[in-house]
Amino acid sequence: MKLLKNFVSLSVAEGVSKVVTFAAFAYVAHIAGPGGMGYVEFAAAAFLCAGLVVDLGFNPYGAREIARAPERTGQLVSEIVVARLFLAVFACLILAAMALWLDRAPVERRLLLLYGLSLLPMPLLLQWVFQGHELMGIVGISTVIRQTVFAVVVFATVRAPDWIWLVAAGEVAGVCCAALYLFHTYRRRFGFAVILRTRLSRKLFREGLPIGLAQFFWAARIIGGTLILGFVATTHEVGLYGSAQRILVALHTFVWLYFFNLLPSLSRAWRQDRSSFADIVDRSLRLVVWVAVGAAVLGVLLAGRAMTLAYGASFAPGGPILQCFAGVCLISAISGHYRFGLIAAGRQTSEMVTAAIGALFAIVLIPLGYFRAGPSGAAVGLLVAETAVWASAWWYGRRVLAMRGHAWHLLRPFAAGGLVLGLAAWVPLSSDLARAAISAAVFALLAFVSDAAMREAGRGALAALRTARGPRAHERLSETIGSTTDGSR
Questions:
Q1: Are the C-beta atoms of residues 439 and 383 closer than 8 Å to each other?
Q2: What is the pLDDT of residues 359-386, one digit of tens each?
Q3: Nearest residue to 62 via CA among 348, 471, 353, 469
Q4: What is the DSSP letter of 1?
Q5: Are 52 and 214 in contact (CB under 8 A)?
Q6: Does the predicted model carry a pTM greater than 0.85?
Q7: CA distance 393 to 408
Q8: What single DSSP character describes residue 56?
Q9: How far apart, in whole angstroms, are the C-alpha atoms of residue 298 and residue 321?
Q10: Is residue 316 within 8 Å of 308, Cβ to Cβ?
Q11: Residue closest to 98 by CA, chosen among 46, 140, 174, 39
């Protein structure tokens, strides 16, 4: 029940935040066009990579340690905040050096410098503290504050292509407001002072660094494509690729959010009951694969329309790029069970290796794909890299965590997705919306016909809805859905 409530609260907050943020970037895209968005996306990608330097894996590490020992909250906050302050200054200097020494356009230099300033308050983004205590509502509120402030600044200040550098000013304002809210809430709820300790434990870096490197390798794989193309492609092509990638990152956030919420439960289950750990993963995978395959099918069918509606007709050539990214998001949703399972079990080094493999594939295949087939070829390179991560994470999951018997959970959803895509290509409909609606209905039917767990969940949800007038109807519905992912039930 608690797992489901936390996930719902986080999902609602992230949904609101992503809609607001996406609206702001779509507004900028309509003003600046693909060329202007190329500048914005390159600088934003550099900022995201620098932000991972500030984190360095301390967020998942801190949340895991608090979930295991809540009484260590004050000690962990003091230690992690100080470590991240040093890293924030270092990352800020990196972006400043990029802005001053690289041969970039003036507007891009301003974007990089302002994004660098937004790194300095990031150590006080204490979402990981509330994640460890499973207070996900506070995490969600901080996300809404950050992205809403960002969007307000963008809508209020960006009026012409020459003003797109103010997008980074919105990021500065958003990070500062979210950091103030989280720090104030932390002091009010826990009352611990943040003591600036100059001596940091070896365990913090020994266990946090592999997670941080894995996150950095993730950035090299998912976000690094925009940076790579920023050096070899035109700004128009970077704008198309980066704009499609922004939709991928927005959708991938919900994948990450799911495992962000699941991590404390996995950590406790691994320490207390290995059979419960395996059951949580099994139940979660069985549900998530169906949802992810269905979403990927819709992404393939509606990619062109999504790019046009979001950014305008000039971004329509980005449709094939977004189709590949739908597959990337699907593969990530599957591999996340193995990757976060490794983190929960304290095998973050193994998880880092899987991320490094994916980054290596991406660094090689993204530019190779671009030179062979343009931005669409680069997107195919990213898809292959994500598949390499899945393969290596699956291998580690079997070897280290004894995670077996999942092939059947994957076979039926993938077969259903392939069948639906084949039917969609064959059905003579001029409307892509009608084709997508029919495909979704057929896919849902196949899910309920072929999987007993889906039928059971559907019958339970319908039973709860029929008794919606009862005082505990919402609880019964939550219990029905929650039982698919909570292995302790």
A1: no
A2: 899 999 999 999 999 999 999 999 999 9
A3: 348
A4: -
A5: no
A6: no
A7: 18
A8: T
A9: 15
A10: yes
A11: 46
Residues 235, 379: Cα–Cα separation, whole Å: 16
What is the spatial distance between Cα 140 and Cα 134, in angstroms, rounded to a whole number? 12
pLDDT at position 253, please? 76
Contact 339, 401 (CB under 8 A): no
Determine the pLDDT at residue 129. 87
Q: Which of 21, 36, 26, 33 is nearest to 162 (CA)?
A: 36
* Token code pair at residue 344: 């929960």
Q: How many other β-carbons are positioned within 10 Å of the β-carbon of residue 462?
A: 11
Angle at 484 between CA 480 and CA 489, to 5 degrees: 75
d(CA 403, CA 345): 12
In angstroms, rounded to a whole number, what is the distance separating the alpha carbons of residues 197 and 85? 11
Cα–Cα nearest to 16, from 136, 130, 143: 143
Q: How far apart are the first and last CA of the chain?
A: 9
Token pair 């994500």: residue:
386
Residues 6+ apart with CB under 8 A from 469: none
Give Cβ neighbours of residue 466 (< 8 Å, ≥ 6 apart).
Answer: none
Q: How far is CA 33 from CA 40, 225, 310, 312, 433, in A?
A: 11, 20, 12, 8, 26
Consecutive H or E run containing 157: helix 136-157
> Residue type at 94?
I
Domain layout of the chain by residue ranges? 1-200
**Which two tokens mark 471?**
């005082």
Write phi, then psi, for 469 (nearest 5 degrees).
-80, -15
Distances from the Cα of 181 to the Cα of 9, 63, 137, 197, angstroms = 18, 19, 13, 23
Give 448-480 pLDDT, tens digit per residue.
Answer: 888 777 777 667 666 655 664 554 544 444 444
Give Cβ neighbours of residue 13 (< 8 Å, ≥ 6 apart).
137, 139, 140, 141, 143, 144
Q: Compute the distance between CA of residue 267 and CA of residue 263 in angstroms, rounded to an integer.
A: 6
> In 3D, which of 231, 279, 250 has the Cα closest to residue 14?
250
The Cα-based distances of 100 to 23, 43, 104, 111, 170 in angstroms read 31, 13, 9, 12, 21
- For residues 65 and 72, the answer to whether their CB atoms sit within 8 Å is yes
Q: Tens digits of per-residue pLDDT, 168-218?
A: 999 999 999 999 999 999 888 887 666 665 566 677 677 667 777 777 787
Residue 50 burial by CB count (10 A; 0-12/13-18/19+): exposed, middle or buried? buried
